[in-house]
Amino acid sequence: MRKCFFRLSACGAMLAALLLGTGCSDDDNNNGSNPVNPVTDGRFITVAGAIMQDEPGDGNGGTRVYSITKENAQDPNFSVNVYANGMAVQSNRTARLQSSVDGSTLFNITYTGSNGGEFMTYNVAGGGNFTQSGTTVNISQYAGTSPRWVKLFDGDNTGVAVNVTAPQVVTGTDGAYVRTRGTATVLSLDLQNILISGYKQYEIALSAAEEAQGHHIFRLDAPTLNAAGNKLIIGTWMRKTDPATGQNASGFERLGSKSVVVDYPSLENPQVITSTVAFGDTSGYRSFNSFVGNDGNVYQATQRDTENGSYILKINQNNQYDNSYVFSLDDALGVTGSYIDAWRYAGNGIAYAVYTHEGANNQGFVARLDLNARTAQLVTAIEYDADLDFGQYQGFVVDGNQLYIAVTPVGKDGNIYVIDIPSGAVTKGAKLVNQPGNHYIGVF
Which residues form the signal peptide (predicted)? Predict the structure, then answer.
């Protein structure tokens, strides 16, 4: 199931950071004549569709994938039916997929079930032809059967999975409440050799005052490698225990947004940093949630703050929040209760976000963000529908000056849209044929 705004529930990132040195142009005044990002000639674009299990749009019945050429993706007369022609990737529920920069490889960790936590790769050969790697590795003994993970943008070499065991209430000898904590795991995967390259486990403490009030880290997600390559910034999902009852508290006053910073590649020395600008979680949901911009700073979205909506936060190159940077999506779009489901940095300070807001009944929208000007604009050229829900959205493709996004209402046909990054011009691409209760969750 998707995120549930501020309502605490059992429901649970794409979109990775474009690090300096991975080919992004350093020209912040790119006039469109030069590519903003690397171009891969002959690149396949893989579309992914999530299958309904019990309720329309729950996506819990598995995931299928199908790959097409860039030319086909741009062609509105070309049709794709991933459910009829695609291949099922290994996952009991919605697969959490990543792809190589050139689109030639898919990376997958099985989500839940008897083989939950098993990592494998798929070679992308066009159409429904995907060859699974003969080698797999299971990380469940360290990170559980439902690990959150992302691929670092370090030349497709490393993935990082994170997990927090169910937080436990600790009381003193007199039975009085002391704190709530779980044990965190941060694990690195060698994507090329398909093996665990390192892991660390520890409890991550908040301040004594915060813990005495019951605040604790419920989930970690969406780790991002900083520009220097020596720290991981890991997003958090916060909860609070009622000290009087030992039960989860609802409607609590939220702390400032927090992230955990660990040394890389050692994964040691976890430190908690706190924003005074925003109060939402920074974990995202089934997608990347932080990116390194061309300026070398990390930009991070927030979620689950219904009072203030989503923010874009800035973490500077000393790995601390820059509290002078204030970018409220509510203010920029003129809405209330905005919620970023997923977003993607596209280069030169431009990003695209899929979001909903208060009063929209979970309907999704697409916005163009200017991180430098701290402005946002609804992309009006996309065909919207009341059943368009980006709650499980995962994958955008950025190739040269173009960003690709899949837009399908639940149970209805939709399209791939191709957006020119420098100008913002939108072109409708390939038709995505849907089935009742299903929806497309990304392109890779």
Answer: 1-25
Cα(176)–Cα(179) distance, integer angstroms:
10
Positive or negative: CA dihedral 288, 210, 304, 352 = negative
User: How open is the CA angle 271-344-338, to the nearest 5 degrees?
Assistant: 80
Question: In this structure, what token pair is assigned to residue 107?
Answer: 């990376």
Three-state DSSP class for residue 332: helix
Q: Are 188 and 194 in contact (CB under 8 A)?
A: no
At which residue do the structure tokens 């990132």 appear?
Answer: 13
Q: Cα–Cα distance between 115 and 109 in angstroms, integer?
A: 9
Report the distance separating Cα 295 and Cα 300, nearest Å. Answer: 14
Element (H, E) at 329: helix 329-333
d(CA 284, CA 72): 31
Q: What is the pLDDT of residues 339-354, one digit of tens each?
A: 999 999 999 999 999 9
pLDDT at position 45 over 70: yes
For the chain, the structural domain boundaries read 44-443
The domain defined by 44-443 folds into: Methylamine Dehydrogenase; Chain H (2.130.10)
Q: What is the mean pLDDT of residues 64-82?
A: 98
The distance of Cα 5 from the centroid of its chain, to the nearest Å, equals 16
